[in-house]
Structure formats: structure tokens, C-alpha cells
Amino acid sequence: MTDSATQSVSLADLAARAAEARQWSYSPYSGYAVGAAVLAASGKIYDGANIENAAYPVTLCAERVAGVKAVSEGDREFVAVAVATANGGMPCGACRQFLSEFGLEAVVVAADADGNILRQTTVRELLPEAFGPSQLK
Model's pTM, two decimal places? Predict the structure, then answer.
């Protein structure tokens, strides 16, 4: 993360924000609370939590909740994403695909429930040979 718009936000700060977002998780079925924080190129941070539904396929992952908030407010370039879970889980496949649309080079950190970073990678590393806009041409 060397972009001048994001120099004031550390990955540790982003992970702490994701851990804090876990409190808003609505996960009555799995009990697996997830928080996420997306750092946009503008320097703004968008957070979100997973939202489960009795009709499981319409459940929303925390990463997509945070990302949709960013995109719906005009931020369409992601620099970094933090995900916080009880066990340091990484984004699922659907979230990896979603994130690739807005930041294939974005840094991804997985943190525990206290915001301690357990792993760092990039969206590109999580989703090699990603399907993207160029395939639609």
C-alpha cells in the first residue's frame, strides 16, 4: 500500500476496523461472524458484516457488503481489504471474484476476532487467472 491517498491507513488499522464490524454480523444459522473493511483508492474505508438468511443462497458475505457500500458510493477501486473472523478465514470464492472486479492487485489480510493479522496476500494470488472485463470483449 504505497498510494499517497492511502498512506495514512495501515493494514493493522484496517484489520481492527474489520474486527469491530463483526459486532454487526447477523449469523443466527452458522454462528460464524465475519467483519470486513475495504480501503478504497480515495482513502475512504467501508466496513460491513455478514448477513445470513433462512434461504441460504441469498446470504451476503461481509466482504461483499463492504464492497457494495464502496461501489454504491462511487468508490470503484479497492486498495486493500481486511477480513476478520474467529479463526482468521480468508474470503470465499464468490468474494474473491467480486473483489477482483475492483482491485485485482488489492492487498487482502485475514485477521482474528481481535484484529491481529494472521495472513497477507493479494486478490490476484487468491484468484489466479481471474475472469474479468477483458474476457467479455
Answer: 0.92
